[in-house]
Amino acid sequence: MKNFEQLHRRTFIRSSVFAGLGMSLGFPSLGKSKATEKRVGIIGLDTSHSLAFTKVLNGNKDNENYHGYHVVAAYPYGSKTIASSADRIPDYINKIKEYGIDITDSIQELLEKVDVVLLETNDGRLHLEQAIEVFKSGKRVFIDKPIAASLKDSIAIFDAAKKYNVPVFSASSLRYIKGIEKLEGRIIVGADTYSPASIEPTHPDLFWYGIHGVETLFTALGPGCVSVTRTHTEFTDIVTGIWEDERWALSGALGLETLASEVPFLLTRVLLYLGPMVVMSLY
Question: Domain named Gfo/Idh/MocA-like oxidoreductase N-terminal: which ranges (predicted)?
C-alpha cells in the first residue's frame, strides 16, 4: 500500500512533474520570472492532466513552493478525432469551470489572458501547430506527452522554439523518479524498465504512451543512444538500446490499455545495473 501511495498520480504531480514545469514556466528557484507573470493558460481539455494541474495550482495559491502560479484560462481543443480523448472534453469543460477558469474560443484569445502555457492536448499531431502559435507570442510553454506524433514534428517544435527564442520543456514525470538523486556520482552500466504503453493507431510505435519507460532510461543513462531494436507482439513491446560507450538499456512496454489507464505508474518498474552483481531497484 505504501508503494501505491508513492506512485499515486497526485503525488507525482505535486512532487515530480512540477520540478519539470518549473523549468518551462520559470519558477524563481529554477529561472528568472517577473513577479507579475503568474497567470497560467491550458491548451487542451481532453486529458485528466489539465484538471490535475488546475487542482494543484489553484489549490495552493498561498503555498510558496508554487510561487503564485495559477490557472486562469483554458482552450478546450484538444483532440477532435481520437474518441477516447475528444469524448472527455464536454465534461472537463464543466469541471474546470468550477475553479473559475475562463473558457476561450481560440488559442489567440487564451494568449491574451495568460503569461505562460501548459500545452496539454492529448493528440500529438496537433502539437506543432499549437506550439508555434504560442512561440510567436513569446510565452513560455510546457508540452505534455506525447511531444508530437512523429520525429519530424518533434524536431520542428524545438527548432521553432529556438527560432522564436522561447523556452520549451517536455517530459514524463518519471524523469524525477523518487530515488534517482541517489545515483549522483555512480556509474550505471545498464538499465531495465517496464511501463504501460497502450498503442494509439494515429501515433506510431511508442509515441502515444511509451514515454514513461523510455524517459527513465535516458534519466539514468543520459544521451548517447546509437542503436535501437524493437520486438513487437500483440500485448508487449521490448525495445533495446545500445549507448555509444557500450552501455545498454531495455524497455518493456506493456500494451494493457485498460489497466494502464487506471494505474499507469504502479505498473512501472526500473532496475539499474551499477556494475557486476550490483542492482538498484527504484520501483
Answer: 39-169
Instruction: Report the distance separating Cα 119 and Cα 130, nearest Å.
Output: 8
What would the grid cell of residue 227 be? Answer: 542503436
Please give the torsion angle defined by the CA atoms of residues 154, 157, 159 and 160, in that order, rounded to the nearest 10 degrees: 170
User: Which secondary structure element, helix H or strand E, spans residue 228, and what is its range?
Assistant: strand 225-232
Looking at the structure, tell me whether residues 133 and 43 fall in a common domain. Answer: yes
Which segments of the chain have a pLDDT < 70?
Answer: 1-37, 183-186, 252-283
Number of domains in the chain: 2
- Burial environment of residue 248 by CB neighbours within 10 A (0 to 12, 13 to 18, 19 or more): middle
> Omega before 22 cis (within 30°)?
no
- How many whole angstroms separate alpha carbon 138 and alpha carbon 233? 44
Is 150 in a helix, a strand, or coil? coil
Domain boundary among 119, 139, 169: 169
Provide the pLDDT for residue 268. 58
pLDDT score recorded for residue 96: 96
Domain termination residue (choose one: 135, 169, 203): 169
**Pairing label, strands 248-254, 236-243:** antiparallel
Q: Do residue 197 and residue 241 come from a single domain? A: yes
